[in-house]
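so i finally got all the pieces together for this one. its two components total, 386 residues if u count the protein bits. some of the lines might not be protein, just check the labels. i wanna see the whole assembly predicted at once instead of chain by chain like last time, that was a mess tbh
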Amino acid sequence: MTATVYLALTVTLGFFLAAALHVPPLARALGYPVQLHLTLGLFGAFLLGIAAAGRKLLAMFALSKGTAAYRLRILTVLVHGAVAAELLHAFAGLPSHGAALVLLAAAGGLQLWEEAALLRVRLRRRLELPVRRNLLAHAFLPVAGVLAAAGLQKAAGAALLLGFVVLATSGMQVKIAPFLSWQARYAARGASGGAPLLRDMLLPGLEPLTTAGLAGGAAAATMATVTHASGWAVAAVILQVAGAWAQLAQTGAILFGRRGAASRPPTRERVPRKETA
Amino acid sequence: MTPNVHAVGPGVDPEALLTALGEVVDPELGIDILNLGLVCTVEVAGEAVAVEMTLTTPGCPLHASIADAVESRVARVEGVGTVDVMVVWDPPWTPESTSERARRALGFR
């Protein structure tokens, strides 16, 4: 819910920032608070959204049991604090931008801690590739932190947006879409047999391509922003496009693919039962 | 978790009920709900069957689909008139409820 509010604020502020480029009185009144915009979007909308949804989804897909919720609550407070600090910096002229960065770094650290805690108590040892892509996304959080600390704000933004946000959301999208598609297409058949398993709705060969493309593309784009070398930029475009098309093809397979009950569940073990009459 | 089957009176074969329940597969995990240990109790009173079950995760998006599948499968067992499926969270599902085969298939720790 909080992430959704921040998303609406991000879009609204983005609209005003775009309008300010063409309306001088608005530009004078608003300034150009791009740091506030990035904090609202990348952390308020995306980090909070990924953290909150991930706590449920990763726990569901990894069968993680028994992690505390306090980290998510603290993370939310830290992001609120960072947004407040950026607001004071943008509109009251206070030197609070550094404090906002510290709060955001702490929020990122808490998210890493939360993911590690969920993994530590998971029951499923083998995680599927889309889930691993979601986890790989978190490697870009410390990278962005180091870049931001070094004053490379654009590179930090690239690592956060293309690395963390894109990988995290694309991984979970490939896990969630089959649930929705299955319910719409196969729920009735599931009751009478012959419905595919969720994993049968995926084209497995596309997942490594998506992960390599999107992760490699995010790394190359970050490097391009740091080095200003065109080679990295070209590599970033090629890899990102390949990853994006693989993701699109996977989504199409999930939504429109025709799959039978390819995977057979293991034969039912004889389950001892108690019976009273 | 071993499902407790309480059968009162003739008419419904408990073994047929278990066979029907074993045909309901969790489409995410690919394991039937008996091996997963999701069925807590089965109460049979005449033609009425009440199934109390749980799911691996509260808020599982397949909640309704799996409950519908259980109802549909059990309703087809000979002698069954009405079926009541209740999903409960207490006691919560634990990995100890699953069969050894399911644990191996899921790669449990």
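Chain A has two domains: 1-127, 129-259.
Residues 1-127 of chain A form one domain.
anyway lmk what u think
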